[in-house]
Amino acid sequence: MKVGVVGIGKMGRPIANRLITAGHDVAICNRSENAGVDALRDKGATVHASPADLAGVSEVVLTALPTEDSVRQVYAQMSVVARDGQIYVDHSTVSPGLNRDCAANLARRGASFLDAPVSGGPAGAEAGNLTVMVGGDDGTFNRALPVFEAFGSKIRLCGPVGAGQAIKLVNQYLVAVHTMAASEAAAFAAGLGADLGTVQDVIGTSFGSSAMLLRNLPRYAARDFSPATPVGLIAKDLSIIHAEAMDAGVPLLLGGLVEQCYLEAKARGWAGEDMSALVKFWDRQAAGSGDQGHRG
Questions:
Q1: All structural domains of the chain
Q2: What pLDDT, on the 0 to 100 scale, is given for residue 275?
Q3: DSSP summary character for residue 49
Q4: Which candidate among 125, 254, 289, 295 keeps its CA 20 to 30 Å from the CA of 106?
Q5: Whole-angstrom Cα distance, residue 113 to residue 98?
Q6: 168 is catalytic
Q7: Of 10, 168, 236, 280, which residue is the catalytic one?
Protein backbone atom coordinates (compact mmCIF):
# COMPACT_ATOMS: atom_id res chain seq x y z
CA MET A 1 0.00 0.00 0.00
CA LYS A 2 1.04 3.63 -0.42
CA VAL A 3 1.33 4.82 3.17
CA GLY A 4 2.12 8.33 4.34
CA VAL A 5 3.61 9.08 7.76
CA VAL A 6 3.37 12.58 9.22
CA GLY A 7 5.69 13.17 12.16
CA ILE A 8 9.13 11.59 11.92
CA GLY A 9 10.03 11.66 15.59
CA LYS A 10 10.68 9.04 18.22
CA MET A 11 7.71 6.92 17.14
CA GLY A 12 7.12 8.01 13.55
CA ARG A 13 10.65 7.21 12.40
CA PRO A 14 10.71 3.54 13.48
CA ILE A 15 7.10 3.06 12.33
CA ALA A 16 8.00 4.38 8.87
CA ASN A 17 11.11 2.20 8.82
CA ARG A 18 9.06 -0.92 9.60
CA LEU A 19 6.62 -0.02 6.83
CA ILE A 20 9.46 0.25 4.31
CA THR A 21 10.86 -3.10 5.47
CA ALA A 22 7.41 -4.67 5.06
CA GLY A 23 7.34 -3.56 1.41
CA HIS A 24 4.95 -0.61 1.57
CA ASP A 25 5.48 2.47 -0.61
CA VAL A 26 6.17 5.07 2.07
CA ALA A 27 5.87 8.85 1.94
CA ILE A 28 6.99 10.98 4.90
CA CYS A 29 6.55 14.53 6.13
CA ASN A 30 8.07 16.29 9.12
CA ARG A 31 7.99 19.89 10.27
CA SER A 32 11.79 20.05 10.01
CA GLU A 33 14.59 18.10 8.39
CA ASN A 34 16.34 15.71 10.76
CA ALA A 35 18.53 12.64 10.69
CA GLY A 36 15.46 10.40 10.73
CA VAL A 37 14.08 12.03 7.59
CA ASP A 38 17.44 11.68 5.83
CA ALA A 39 17.80 8.01 6.83
CA LEU A 40 14.30 7.15 5.60
CA ARG A 41 14.87 9.00 2.34
CA ASP A 42 18.00 6.92 1.83
CA LYS A 43 15.88 3.77 2.32
CA GLY A 44 13.44 4.79 -0.38
CA ALA A 45 10.82 6.97 1.32
CA THR A 46 9.63 10.02 -0.59
CA VAL A 47 9.75 13.28 1.37
CA HIS A 48 6.90 15.79 1.09
CA ALA A 49 6.89 19.43 2.09
CA SER A 50 3.47 19.48 3.78
CA PRO A 51 0.90 17.10 5.25
CA ALA A 52 -1.53 18.10 2.48
CA ASP A 53 1.02 17.17 -0.22
CA LEU A 54 1.61 13.82 1.47
CA ALA A 55 -2.11 13.13 1.84
CA GLY A 56 -2.62 13.82 -1.85
CA VAL A 57 -0.51 10.79 -2.85
CA SER A 58 -1.32 8.33 -0.03
CA GLU A 59 -3.95 5.62 0.38
CA VAL A 60 -3.39 5.44 4.14
CA VAL A 61 -2.09 8.38 6.19
CA LEU A 62 -0.57 7.81 9.64
CA THR A 63 0.14 10.65 12.06
CA ALA A 64 2.43 10.44 15.10
CA LEU A 65 2.45 13.92 16.62
CA PRO A 66 3.50 15.29 20.02
CA THR A 67 0.63 17.59 21.05
CA GLU A 68 -3.08 18.15 20.59
CA ASP A 69 -2.39 21.46 18.84
CA SER A 70 -0.15 19.75 16.28
CA VAL A 71 -2.86 17.15 15.62
CA ARG A 72 -5.45 19.90 15.07
CA GLN A 73 -3.17 21.81 12.70
CA VAL A 74 -2.14 18.79 10.65
CA TYR A 75 -5.69 17.43 10.27
CA ALA A 76 -6.99 20.90 9.35
CA GLN A 77 -4.54 20.86 6.43
CA MET A 78 -5.27 17.29 5.37
CA SER A 79 -9.05 17.36 5.69
CA VAL A 80 -9.39 19.78 2.78
CA VAL A 81 -7.65 17.35 0.39
CA ALA A 82 -9.07 14.09 1.80
CA ARG A 83 -10.89 11.92 -0.69
CA ASP A 84 -13.27 9.00 -0.83
CA GLY A 85 -11.68 5.69 0.12
CA GLN A 86 -8.72 7.09 2.03
CA ILE A 87 -7.92 6.00 5.58
CA TYR A 88 -6.44 8.38 8.14
CA VAL A 89 -4.95 6.99 11.36
CA ASP A 90 -3.82 9.00 14.38
CA HIS A 91 -1.19 7.28 16.53
CA SER A 92 -0.78 10.36 18.76
CA THR A 93 -2.03 10.40 22.36
CA VAL A 94 -4.84 12.97 22.48
CA SER A 95 -8.36 13.29 23.85
CA PRO A 96 -11.06 11.02 22.38
CA GLY A 97 -13.10 14.11 21.53
CA LEU A 98 -10.34 15.58 19.38
CA ASN A 99 -10.10 12.39 17.36
CA ARG A 100 -13.89 12.25 16.96
CA ASP A 101 -13.68 15.78 15.51
CA CYS A 102 -10.96 14.60 13.08
CA ALA A 103 -13.18 11.71 12.01
CA ALA A 104 -16.20 13.96 11.42
CA ASN A 105 -14.24 16.43 9.29
CA LEU A 106 -12.74 13.66 7.16
CA ALA A 107 -16.11 11.93 6.73
CA ARG A 108 -17.42 15.03 4.94
CA ARG A 109 -14.88 14.26 2.21
CA GLY A 110 -15.65 10.54 2.15
CA ALA A 111 -12.48 9.51 4.01
CA SER A 112 -12.36 7.12 6.97
CA PHE A 113 -10.57 7.58 10.29
CA LEU A 114 -9.13 5.38 13.03
CA ASP A 115 -7.66 6.50 16.32
CA ALA A 116 -4.84 4.06 17.02
CA PRO A 117 -2.53 5.14 19.85
CA VAL A 118 0.31 2.75 20.58
CA SER A 119 2.28 1.51 23.56
CA GLY A 120 5.75 0.04 23.68
CA GLY A 121 7.90 3.08 23.01
CA PRO A 122 10.52 3.55 20.30
CA ALA A 123 12.09 0.17 21.10
CA GLY A 124 8.75 -1.56 20.57
CA ALA A 125 8.28 0.24 17.26
CA GLU A 126 11.76 -0.78 16.11
CA ALA A 127 11.10 -4.40 17.07
CA GLY A 128 7.64 -4.44 15.49
CA ASN A 129 5.89 -5.44 18.70
CA LEU A 130 3.85 -2.36 19.60
CA THR A 131 0.43 -2.66 21.18
CA VAL A 132 -2.02 -0.83 18.89
CA MET A 133 -5.32 0.29 20.47
CA VAL A 134 -7.77 1.09 17.69
CA GLY A 135 -11.05 2.98 17.61
CA GLY A 136 -13.24 2.87 14.50
CA ASP A 137 -15.45 0.60 12.43
CA ASP A 138 -14.75 -3.01 11.50
CA GLY A 139 -14.40 -2.40 7.76
CA THR A 140 -11.85 0.37 8.09
CA PHE A 141 -9.93 -1.57 10.74
CA ASN A 142 -9.66 -4.63 8.50
CA ARG A 143 -8.45 -2.54 5.56
CA ALA A 144 -5.77 -0.92 7.72
CA LEU A 145 -4.70 -4.12 9.48
CA PRO A 146 -1.86 -4.99 7.04
CA VAL A 147 -0.35 -1.59 7.81
CA PHE A 148 -0.60 -2.08 11.58
CA GLU A 149 0.95 -5.55 11.28
CA ALA A 150 4.18 -3.98 10.05
CA PHE A 151 4.91 -2.53 13.49
CA GLY A 152 2.40 -4.04 15.93
CA SER A 153 2.03 -7.46 17.53
CA LYS A 154 -0.99 -6.81 19.78
CA ILE A 155 -3.57 -5.06 17.58
CA ARG A 156 -7.06 -4.65 19.02
CA LEU A 157 -10.20 -2.93 17.80
CA CYS A 158 -11.48 -1.46 21.07
CA GLY A 159 -14.74 0.12 19.88
CA PRO A 160 -15.86 3.16 17.85
CA VAL A 161 -13.69 6.20 17.15
CA GLY A 162 -12.29 7.45 20.46
CA ALA A 163 -12.20 4.03 22.10
CA GLY A 164 -8.51 3.52 21.34
CA GLN A 165 -7.66 6.83 22.97
CA ALA A 166 -9.72 5.92 26.04
CA ILE A 167 -7.69 2.74 26.53
CA LYS A 168 -4.42 4.59 25.89
CA LEU A 169 -5.23 7.23 28.50
CA VAL A 170 -5.86 4.49 31.07
CA ASN A 171 -2.49 3.01 30.10
CA GLN A 172 -0.72 6.36 30.42
CA TYR A 173 -2.30 6.95 33.80
CA LEU A 174 -0.83 3.66 35.04
CA VAL A 175 2.53 4.41 33.41
CA ALA A 176 2.74 7.72 35.26
CA VAL A 177 1.65 6.34 38.63
CA HIS A 178 3.76 3.20 38.41
CA THR A 179 6.84 5.18 37.36
CA MET A 180 6.46 7.43 40.39
CA ALA A 181 5.94 4.39 42.62
CA ALA A 182 8.99 2.66 41.15
CA SER A 183 11.11 5.77 41.78
CA GLU A 184 10.00 5.93 45.39
CA ALA A 185 10.51 2.18 45.83
CA ALA A 186 14.05 2.43 44.46
CA ALA A 187 14.84 5.19 46.93
CA PHE A 188 13.33 3.10 49.75
CA ALA A 189 15.34 0.05 48.70
CA ALA A 190 18.57 2.05 48.60
CA GLY A 191 17.78 3.54 52.00
CA LEU A 192 17.44 0.02 53.41
CA GLY A 193 20.75 -0.97 51.84
CA ALA A 194 19.18 -3.33 49.28
CA ASP A 195 20.91 -3.97 45.96
CA LEU A 196 18.77 -2.74 43.02
CA GLY A 197 19.77 -5.71 40.88
CA THR A 198 18.50 -8.07 43.57
CA VAL A 199 15.33 -6.00 43.95
CA GLN A 200 14.66 -6.38 40.24
CA ASP A 201 15.41 -10.10 40.21
CA VAL A 202 13.23 -10.94 43.21
CA ILE A 203 10.39 -8.43 42.99
CA GLY A 204 10.29 -8.85 39.21
CA THR A 205 8.51 -12.17 39.76
CA SER A 206 6.51 -11.05 42.81
CA PHE A 207 3.15 -9.35 43.27
CA GLY A 208 4.86 -5.97 43.63
CA SER A 209 6.29 -6.05 40.12
CA SER A 210 5.20 -3.81 37.25
CA ALA A 211 6.39 -3.13 33.73
CA MET A 212 7.58 0.30 34.87
CA LEU A 213 9.56 -1.16 37.78
CA LEU A 214 11.35 -3.57 35.44
CA ARG A 215 11.88 -0.85 32.83
CA ASN A 216 13.17 1.81 35.18
CA LEU A 217 15.34 -0.02 37.72
CA PRO A 218 18.21 -0.61 35.25
CA ARG A 219 18.01 3.05 34.25
CA TYR A 220 18.23 4.13 37.88
CA ALA A 221 21.31 1.97 38.41
CA ALA A 222 23.01 3.19 35.22
CA ARG A 223 21.93 6.83 35.66
CA ASP A 224 20.54 6.57 32.12
CA PHE A 225 17.94 9.30 31.72
CA SER A 226 18.21 9.56 27.93
CA PRO A 227 14.68 10.44 26.78
CA ALA A 228 13.02 7.31 25.44
CA THR A 229 9.79 8.56 27.08
CA PRO A 230 10.39 12.10 28.33
CA VAL A 231 8.97 13.59 31.52
CA GLY A 232 7.38 16.36 29.47
CA LEU A 233 5.48 13.89 27.32
CA ILE A 234 3.97 12.13 30.34
CA ALA A 235 3.11 15.50 31.88
CA LYS A 236 1.23 16.36 28.67
CA ASP A 237 -0.67 13.07 28.84
CA LEU A 238 -1.54 13.67 32.49
CA SER A 239 -3.10 17.03 31.64
CA ILE A 240 -5.37 15.28 29.11
CA ILE A 241 -6.14 12.51 31.61
CA HIS A 242 -7.04 15.07 34.28
CA ALA A 243 -9.45 16.90 31.95
CA GLU A 244 -11.10 13.66 30.79
CA ALA A 245 -11.47 12.41 34.38
CA MET A 246 -13.11 15.70 35.39
CA ASP A 247 -15.59 15.38 32.51
CA ALA A 248 -16.31 11.77 33.49
CA GLY A 249 -16.81 12.69 37.17
CA VAL A 250 -14.04 10.32 38.29
CA PRO A 251 -11.68 11.74 40.94
CA LEU A 252 -8.14 10.45 40.34
CA LEU A 253 -6.68 10.89 43.82
CA LEU A 254 -3.27 9.37 43.12
CA GLY A 255 -3.29 10.94 39.69
CA GLY A 256 -3.53 14.44 41.10
CA LEU A 257 -0.52 13.89 43.33
CA VAL A 258 1.50 12.26 40.58
CA GLU A 259 0.67 15.05 38.11
CA GLN A 260 2.08 17.58 40.58
CA CYS A 261 5.29 15.54 40.79
CA TYR A 262 5.69 15.57 37.00
CA LEU A 263 5.05 19.33 36.91
CA GLU A 264 7.68 19.78 39.62
CA ALA A 265 10.09 17.67 37.57
CA LYS A 266 9.47 19.95 34.59
CA ALA A 267 10.10 23.00 36.77
CA ARG A 268 13.45 21.49 37.79
CA GLY A 269 14.46 21.27 34.14
CA TRP A 270 13.90 17.54 33.62
CA ALA A 271 11.19 17.80 30.92
CA GLY A 272 13.52 16.50 28.22
CA GLU A 273 14.84 13.61 30.33
CA ASP A 274 13.34 10.15 30.49
CA MET A 275 10.55 9.61 33.01
CA SER A 276 12.96 7.44 35.02
CA ALA A 277 14.62 10.74 36.01
CA LEU A 278 11.92 11.12 38.67
CA VAL A 279 14.25 9.13 40.94
CA LYS A 280 16.29 12.34 41.20
CA PHE A 281 13.71 13.66 43.67
CA TRP A 282 15.55 11.58 46.27
CA ASP A 283 19.06 11.73 47.61
CA ARG A 284 22.32 10.71 45.96
CA GLN A 285 22.33 7.25 47.52
CA ALA A 286 18.86 6.47 46.12
CA ALA A 287 19.61 7.96 42.71
CA GLY A 288 22.99 6.32 42.35
CA SER A 289 25.21 9.43 42.29
CA GLY A 290 25.38 13.07 41.40
CA ASP A 291 22.09 14.90 41.83
CA GLN A 292 21.14 16.38 45.16
CA GLY A 293 17.48 16.23 46.18
CA HIS A 294 15.29 15.72 49.18
CA ARG A 295 14.75 12.45 50.98
CA GLY A 296 11.19 11.19 50.54
A1: 2-160 (3.40.50.720), 166-287 (1.10.1040.10)
A2: 97
A3: S
A4: 125
A5: 12
A6: yes
A7: 168
